[in-house]
Amino acid sequence: MRTKTQPDDIQNYLTDASNMPGGHAEKLLVPDSADDVASVLREANASGTPVTLCGARTGTVGGAVPFGGVVLSLEKLVGIEIDREQRIATVGAGVILGDLQKAVDREGLFYPPDPTEWSCQIGGNIATNASGSRSFKYGATREYVRALRVVLATGDILSIRRGEFIADRDGVLAVRTDKGAAIEIKVPTYERPDVRKNVSGYYNANGLDAVDLFIGSEGTLGVIVEAELSLLEKPKGFFSGIVFFPDEANLLAFVDEVRTASRKHPVVIAPGSDKRADGGVCVPIDATLLEYFDANSLKLISEKFPETPSGMAGAIFFEQETTAENEDALLGLWNELLQKHNAADSASWFTTNEQDLEKMREFRHALPVTVNERVVRNKQKKIGTDMAVPDDKFASFLRFYKEILESSGIEFVVFGHIGDSHLHANLLPKNEEEATRSRHIYGRCIAQAIMLGGCVSAEHGIGKLKRNYLAAMMGERYLNEMAEVKRALDPKGILGRGNVFSEAYLTA
Ligand SMILES: Cc1cc2nc3c(=O)[nH]c(=O)nc-3n(C[C@H](O)[C@H](O)[C@H](O)COP(=O)(O)OP(=O)(O)OC[C@H]3O[C@@H](n4cnc5c(N)ncnc54)[C@H](O)[C@@H]3O)c2cc1C
């Protein structure tokens, strides 16, 4: 295990993609094995030293940013084993998502979770239940996790497999560590909002599975050291397009139609039951992703992609699996739909070839990257929303976004996962006065989302930056229920201090 104490060696581990300032730590520890992790935690627990877990630090809410104590980086846990027959990957927490995707691809298999940023680590993905564009069809990371190996704050190791530890009717989840110690956890009682994506606070459910509790727990309940993941057969091909619309009402009607048609064909993940597009020519519209760019996003992106057509109200990036047999029929179907909704089809881009699809994904990725660069250039903090609302409230929420943002006079973009009724509005303030107003606008958007029955974070998590919003969504009672979960697994509150809720709840 490496230990670093020199400021130069630690510097990069003191912040994440949120650029949250003020991070500091006494040392950085880089364990080589789960046993190393266990011994670090045993010692830290004995001395009450805070431990902040970090993956690749691509998180956007300060979850990996330490404020004292030690930083534990999982970057050395990089084993990948693939069972081609069973379609299962067993991976160390530090495996980079892009590396896993390449390894899986070489086996003719497919790991769908794709948070557009491929440099993140699997442990970080699980800890945030990362999702992204393709979650529209394939779901978030949670759907693919079959088993976890977790080191608890006490240094005890917990190996859990789906179906093994399930909460009872009284909402008590009893787990057993590898050495046989029993831990009882009271499952929180809040109702989950009726949204397609939600990572606001600990996951709960009737009959909660212990695996699900750790997914999305943002480094506060245990250190994920290894995971067993389900894989799918690799699709034969994809038909993809970035389609520009001169009129927003047409764009929204197009999205509605594709969304409704696609939801009739959910993917089945269990081994042996891979559901695919029909091999024949008679195929339905069944998008794997449906992403939105507003007019401002297109303007910003044209700095990196000058071929972006100008004067458009917005664009949609879509994709659907194809086979050689159904490709022509599918192209015809999408073409009909685009004409029906008055897309600017001659200005739009379509492809069935992997290289061009890669370019389209780069186009999509260029947006958050350009936003982050602009924020740094303006010497301001990014103010980006991550709320999701119920489908039937989406149109009114989008109208609210546009009205409040346009009347502010502050530069902004709205983009993202429109298929899941989940968009990111990013405000790009140029000075302190605009930054203050942006924060007020952000607060009003949060209030509106909560009022519409939505959640404050659909995919980025709460971390340290959004815990006041989680408090507004949940209220005292449910924050206390979450704190009780944490106390059961981490009695001294050493892990991920300051993430999800304030430390004050841990001493309550
Ligand atoms: C340009 C850009 C675009 C993005 N787009 C998306 C998107 O579309 N969808 C999406 O979901 N996210 C998106 N993200 C956010 C980010 O990529 C994810 O949150 C990612 O899953 C975090 O992984 P990481 O390895 O970087 O974790 P980190 O940022 O290092 O950590 C994230 C959290 O996980 C905890 N953690 C890390 N490793 C472990 C572990 N082994 N055990 C327990 N806890 C751990 C940390 O303590 C922290 O709380 C984007 C980020 C960027 C920069």
Q: What features would you describe in this structure?
A:
This protein folds into 2 domains: 1-230 and 467-508, Uridine Diphospho-n-acetylenolpyruvylglucosamine Reductase, domain 3; 237-451, FAD-linked oxidases, C-terminal domain (Vanillyl-alcohol Oxidase, Chain A, domain 3). 31% of the residues lie in helices and 20% in strands. It has 13 helices and 20 strands. Strands 17-14-16-15-19-20-18 form a 7-stranded antiparallel sheet, with helices on both faces. Strands 5-6-12-8-9 form a 5-stranded antiparallel sheet. Strands 1-2-4-3 form a 4-stranded mixed sheet. Helix 11 (394-406) packs antiparallel against helix 12. The protein is globular, with a radius of gyration of 22 Å. Bound molecules: flavin-adenine dinucleotide. Flavin-adenine dinucleotide is lined by residues 16-17, 53-60, 63-64, 74, 93, 115-117, 120-121, 123-125, 127-128, 130-132, 218-219, 223-224, 368-369, 459-460, 463, 496, 499.
| Highest-level CATH class of the largest domain | Alpha Beta
Summarize the biggest pleated sheet. 7 strands, antiparallel
| Mean pLDDT across all amino acids | 94
As residue ranges, the low-confidence spans are none
The helical percent reads 25-40%
Number of beta-strand segments: 20
Morphology: globular
Biggest sheet, spatial arrangement of strands: 17-14-16-15-19-20-18
- Overall CATH architecture of the largest domain: 2-Layer Sandwich
Structural class: alpha+beta
What are the distinct ligands in this entry?
flavin-adenine dinucleotide
Radius of gyration, in Å, reads 22 Å
The CATH topology of the largest domain? Uridine Diphospho-n-acetylenolpyruvylglucosamine Reductase, domain 3
What is the tally of helical segments?
13
Domains, number: 2
Give me the oligomer status.
single chain
As a percent range, the share of strand residues is: 15-25%
> End-to-end distance, in Å?
36 Å
